[in-house]
Amino acid sequence: MKLYYRKDGKGSPLVVVHGLYGSSDNWINIGKRLAEKHTVYMLDQRNHGRSPFADSHTYNDLRDDLEAFFEQHQIEKATLLGHSMGGKVAMWFAADFPEKVEKLVIADIAPKDYLLLKENSQFYLHQNILLAMQEIDFSQIKSRNDVDDFMAEKIDDSRIRQFLLKNVAKNKETKQYKWRVNAEVLYDHLDEIVSGVNKNWLDDRTPITSYPVIFIRGMKSNYILPEDEILIREIYPDAKIIDIPEAGHWLHAEQPEKFMQAVMLCC
Question: What is the pTM of this model?
Answer without folding.
Answer: 0.96
